[in-house]
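Q: A reviewer asked whether we had any structural model of the full assembly, not just the individual parts. We don't, so I'm hoping you can provide one. Inputs are below.
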Amino acid sequence: MNAALEFDLGKHPVEAYRDEIGGLIKSANYALGCLKGWMSARKAKLPLAAALTTAEIIPEPLGLVLIISSWNFPFGLSLEPLIGALAAGNVVVLKPSEVAPRCSSLLANVLPAYLDPKAIKVVEGGPAVSEQLVKQKWDKILFTGSARVGRIVMAAAANHLTPVTLEFGGKCPAVLDSLSSSWDREVAVQRIVGSKFSACAGQACIAIDYVVVEKKFSSTLLELMKVRIGKMLGENPRESRSMARIVNKHHFLRLKTLLEDPNVKASIVYGGSMDEKSLFIEPTILLDPPLESDLMQDEIFGPLLPIITLKKIEDSINFINSRPKPLAIYAFTHNDSLRKRMVAETSSGSVTFNDAMIQYMADTLPFGGIGESGMGNYHGKFSFDTFSHHKAVMRRSFLVDFWFRFPPWNDHKLQLFRSMYLFDYLGVLLTVLGLRKSKQG
Amino acid sequence: MAGEDKKQQPFDSKAASSLVAELRGAFASGTTRSYQWRESQLRGLLRMTDEHEQDITAALRSDLGKPELESVLYEAAMLRNSCKFALKELQRWMMPEKVKTSLTTFPSSAEIVSEPLGVVLIISAWNYPYCMRHFSFFIFPVSFASFTILFVVPTFFLHYLSVLSLDPVVGAIAAGNAVVLKPSEIAPATSALLAKLLGEYMDSSSIRVVEGAVPETTALLEQKWDKIFYTGNGRVGQIVMAAAAKHLTPVVLELGGKSPVVVDSGINLQIACRRIIVGKWGNNNGQACIASDYIITTKDLAPKLVDVLKNELETFYGKNPLESKDLSRIVNSNHFTRLTKLLDEDKVSKKVVYGGERDPTKLQIAPTILLDVPRDSLIMNEEIFGPLLPILTVDKLEESFDIIKSGAKPLAAYIFTNDKKLKEHFVNNVSAGGLVVNDTTVHLAVHTLPFGGVGESGIGAYHGKFSFDAFSHKKAVVYRSFMGDAAIRYPPYTNGKLRLMKALLGGSILGILRALFGRS
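A: Here is a predicted structure for the entire assembly that you could use as a starting point for your response.
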């Protein structure tokens, strides 16, 4: 797996472990530990102990599910959903991304040796294959990719009324408040710069897309970032082999074009050099690039980090809200009221304080977007649930019934019902005994 | 008010777009998020139902010929119960849910926050225009004087399903959203009444009703919503979902299907038949999404089953059911024609063993039972949604499961049996939105059960807290400390760091301790 990731994306084995392999081991163990509990029926409380009636919710597999994954975390994004689909008892077709071809063929070749080949199949191929697949009738589709393709997937799913979970991305902001302690500042910068540049070179749905900071701190921030990048990746990041490369020429050129806008180019304050032959772009920081530029309108998905300065850090809330809802919002702050406002006044898949990307590893948190960043969620039990149908089951006895449940209707029966719904037991009794007249003549 | 505006100018794309913009502004102002607002709106719905029960009943009678008791119990009372339940639980539902964090993200704390989705569209069907479910189940012991009477009142619940406009509204409001409701045009008196009453009782800056038919619904579906909740049939469900796909709008689709009833021998046939009857004809005369669609029983039991059904039907609706006031009429002539076509198909018309009478002037069809209709007949290939009940017979009851599985997954499936093995086989092998053993439709009334379909019978679920969840975004929030593993996760990568990372992901305390003391 390391070799395939190195070949397709230039990932370092430690990065591969941290972001994909280690996470998968963790998730699989978690699912194994919880499986029995997840599979068992849950009793549902009945309003007034209907002693001879029981109600429960039984999870059952949806049936045949399709998982389409993306190229940036080819193992993680294929197998994390697979864990959930299998835990829920489904039959699965997995369509890994052709943009990471070694990883895709590894999955196709190796999975059948470890999993039941009659129930889990890997189908390799590009957009044409995906198009054919989504035309079929599935019991569920989980798609990770772009919102543009996500719309096509959901439209195809609509033809069969197939439920979908769609995982996109967005421009995930990192709001950096003033931090008085230098330790905290160092840690914040390390987490920002580390998560941005060392996780698939910024090509991640939950990567920090841009940083927001108060103008007066921007130069301090920039210096701290430069130092930290140097410590992380050395003088020559490409030689360090600790940073992934851009996945292919198409994306390389896309990123190159983002920087060709003269106003954007003028805002580069660090890095900026690119090598097309090795598809490598070094960590690049920009200071206040124009907000209408493509760089600031589209999801960057690369190692370019704009710093946007604002007068007051609280303005970041409006800034974020004027843009589509991202998959994640990050905020580095000790300010409790800012924290509360962040959570209450912005909307995103998730909010993480004082760190970045780590929410991905939490088994107890739903991982998913909202609006343009996606719909539905998974991870941990949410994976199991997303691939299950929660079936309501009620069991009644023949022994209990009440005569006025049935027609023919009359005012007497209506009166009994009125009393019952008001839990006026005495009223019911009196009516039954003929001691109370019905309300309507 | 919405109803009056409609008469003045057509509700087109432009009108729909400015309606959404207006509601987005209202939502952005934060009005709908507060507990106070949500509570006041739910109380408004309650007051509205209390003060206008007569008007509601009259509208339902005008649109559907619905017997008063069905209106009061199933629609008004159900809505009341939904509101009361939501009011009781609202504070609890609104609280963030703390979750355990593992060593992997140590030190941290995390919670799941329920936030409103924003501006939601609710499109309702016509069979239960006012409310959707309703239930009440209770057992209460009453003791007085020298004896104790134990009343077990499994009251039934209601038939809800499909129609109900306002039950999803309860969930949408409880979750803090702004709402546009599009009631069904097939029940026009109820639709107009809803528009008028909601305009009077609810905060119209955030809750609106749009009346109309296909053009208005199309205009609404072109807009970008934060959620669409649709109750109706699969064909339109596809259209709704396709429209939602353009804007990546999540949907809840409450559709239907052919809900089968498997009837075993060795049971109290009379009780079973009563329950089948009240769940079918007592529910809008069979025009309900979870009404029993067809019966499967053994060849041996079929004749007796038919006899008992006939007897009970006569007890409930008399010898002239077309004259009975306790049966809703068929909603309109389109559906009347559709149903008579099902009845009059050649291979089916001779299979009628009870009923079959119809009165086109009153749009009424009598409760009708058919025996041994062919599997490829029209009546067995679409959701009946009316007072016709075909009975299929098999040699062994186990064959019924294959029959059910060969069709689309229904919204509900029922079985009457005392055989434990058969019960468990049914529960574990039949896939449907919901199952009931030894009754029909009652699960509608249980707030603690999710109500929704699977496969072609629907996507998503609601009722009780499930309604609140259907209209909420579950946002993960993580609070991390500045202490911790800062160094080991990032380059330069070393074997030492890899070891620590493995310990972290593997949850080793020792590994964590070592990680805590390093920074670079």
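A: Points you may want to mention in the reply: DSSP finds 17 helices and 18 strands in chain A. Chain A touches chain B through 114 residues (CB under 8 Å).
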